[in-house]
Amino acid sequence: MVDRWFGHLIDALAAGGWLHDTVVIVTSDHGHSLQERRYIGKRGYPSEPEVIDTPLLVRLPHARRAGHICGDWVQHHDIAATILDAAGASPPDPVDGQSFWTALPDAPPASAITWSLPGDPP
Predict the structure, then answer these.
(1) In a domain, 118, yes or no
(2) How far, in Å, CA of 14 to CA of 89, rounded?
(3) What is the pLDDT of residue 61?
(4) Contact status, residue 54 vs residue 45, Cβ threshold 8 Å
(5) Terminal Cα-to-Cα distance of the chain (whole angstroms)
(6) What pLDDT shows up at residue 46?
(7) What is the pLDDT of residue 12?
(8) 97 in helix, strand or coil?
(9) Would you tell me how many other CB atoms lie within 10 Å of the CB of residue 112?
(10) Considering only CA atoms, which of 79, 77, 68, 80 is closest in space to residue 104?
(11) In this predicted model, which residue has the larger pLDDT, 56 or 104?
(12) Could you report the per-residue pLDDT of 27-41, keeping only the tens digit for each?
């Protein structure tokens, strides 16, 4: 189901002419344990790999580095810092996360990415 809807998102970006200069970031949270290792509910620390290893997919403009796997440790609060870094923007207040934008091989400079909202004039 997720694959199908992700495909619809990519198709819609392509149909609108935005895919070539759009950074797409997809992730999830760890959800609830459902009797894995005899535990039910949210887990605290220390935790197990099936709880802390959540997917993080980053699609760069022009599909640069498609299929590349990075073993860097990234946390969810790093995503906001990365989006700001990629956009060349500074947050109005400090953020807890650290950008991983420069750790992405062949990541285009912020000036190569167009940032707009649907309905904005071209």
Answers:
(1) no
(2) 25
(3) 82
(4) no
(5) 33
(6) 58
(7) 94
(8) coil
(9) 11
(10) 68
(11) 56
(12) 887 666 676 666 676
Q: 76: domain range?
A: 21-111
Assess if residue 72 is contained within a domain.
Answer: yes
- Distance of alpha carbon 110 from alpha carbon 61, whole angstroms: 11
- Residue 40 forms beta bridges with which residues? 34
In this structure, is residue 58 part of a structural domain? yes
* Closest of 1, 10, 65 to residue 28, by C-alpha: 1
Tell me, what amino acid is at 43?
R
CB 54 within 8 A of CB 103: no
Residue 116 lies in a domain: no
Q: Please give the mean pLDDT across all residues of the chain.
A: 77
Cβ atoms of 87 and 79 within 8 Å: the answer is: no
- How many domains, the chain? 1
Report how far residue 86's alpha carbon sits from residue 102's, in angstroms, rounded to the nearest whole number.
Answer: 9
